[in-house]
Write a structure and sequence with these properties.
GO terms for molecular function: phosphoprotein phosphatase activity; phosphorelay sensor kinase activity. This protein is α+β, with helices and mostly antiparallel strands. It folds into three domains: 80 residues, no CATH class; 85 residues; 143 residues, Histidine kinase-like ATPase, C-terminal domain (Heat Shock Protein 90, 2-Layer Sandwich), CATH 3.30.565.10. It has nine helices and seven strands. It is elongated. The two termini are 63 Å apart. The mean pLDDT is 82.
């Protein structure tokens, strides 16, 4: 503690020593009686010692309070430090504690949401697993049906992993030249078994070469196409029209209630369709909106109940 004290106040003691030396040289060179210098030196040194004891006591209290603060993180123990600089440090420490508490609260909230989503997705993944188990027990493992359930498992797992990665701000974008048509064709091919299951017809018109992140753009479009399949009617249609700086995906599904459309991009919002069909997590369109914002796209939805939904994506 003494070493730390002299480290903090050492400059003042060095200044005192230099001034004393200058006074001594002055007395010596002018041949003044050194007894006067000696008397004044003893007097000033006595005052310095008393002042040092007081400073050391305050320094000891300050260091003790700071060490106690580090141990229990209690600002009340710093109230005895009344110097202006100490008060300024107290404000800084209080602000840092507040900021850390807010960050911890946000982190805990994010973790809670992730846990909830994992539980929800786990429930959704049980459905195709139970279906596969039943098919195996009844010896009805038809190739097409197995592929449907496996595809559902893959899609659900992909959404979960991408949600976790996106929620943890790990979505590093890599921009390259991509074909919008090629991305959509690949997504259709991947999910063709689901289209056949509902006997859906699909058309793709046009193309658009642009600079974007292929993986995240593909993920966003996959959410829209998944909804076009999920909420479409058997024998329905999905039409994709690609133009320069825009993509329009339209289906003939059950549509969306007018009162649900303003909230369709909110995190966790499922609306009437999600509750009715028990298939929605309320995160697909939310993530789509957030990712497209990062990629500098705007997305809008128009829909009428029992007539279908139209999703328009435009480049800013």
């Amino acid at each position: 503690m003494i070493k730390a004290f002299f480290k903090e106040y050492g400059a003042w003691y060095l200044l005192y020593g230099l001034l004393s030396l200058l006074f001594f040289l002055t007395f010596y060179l002018y041949r003044l009686p050194l007894v006067y210098f000696q008397t004044s030196f003893i007097f000033v040194s006595t005052i310095l010692i008393l002042l040092s004891l007081g400073l050391y006591y305050r320094f000891y209290q300050k260091m003790t309070s700071l060490h106690f603060f580090l141990a229990v993180t209690n600002l009340d123990n710093l109230n005895q430090l009344e110097q202006p600089s100490d008060k300024a440090y107290q404000k800084i420490i209080a602000a840092l504690i507040q900021k850390e508490a807010e960050a911890a609260l946000v982190y805990q909230s994010d973790q809670d949401k992730i846990q909830q989503m994992i539980k929800l997705w786990s429930h959704q993944m049980k459905i195709p697993l139970a279906t596969l188990s039943l098919m195996e027990q009844t010896n009805q493992l038809e190739k097409e049906s197995v592929r449907q359930q496996i595809l559902r498992l893959e899609n659900n797992l992909s959404r979960l992993m991408n949600y976790i990665k996106f929620n943890q701000n790990q979505s590093d974008f890599r921009f390259e030249s991509v074909s919008m048509r090629d991305i959509l064709v690949d997504l259709v091919k991947k999910n063709q078994v689901l289209y056949r299951q509902k006997d859906l017809s699909l058309t793709i018109e046009g193309d658009w070469i642009l600079k974007s992140d292929k993986k995240w753009l593909s993920f966003s479009l996959a959410q829209i196409l998944d909804n076009a399949i999920k909420y479409n009617k058997p024998g329905g249609k999905v039409s994709i029209r690609i133009q320069d700086k825009s993509v329009c995906i339209q289906d003939t599904g059950i549509g969306i209630l007018a009162e649900d459309i303003p909230r369709i991009f909110e995190e966790g919002f499922t609306g009437y369709n999600g509750h009715e069909h028990q298939k929605a997590t309320g995160l697909g369109l939310y993530m789509t909106k957030q990712i497209l914002n990062h990629l500098e796209f705007d997305i809008s939805i128009q829909s009428q109940v029992d007539q279908g939904t139209k999703v328009l994506i435009r480049k800013r």
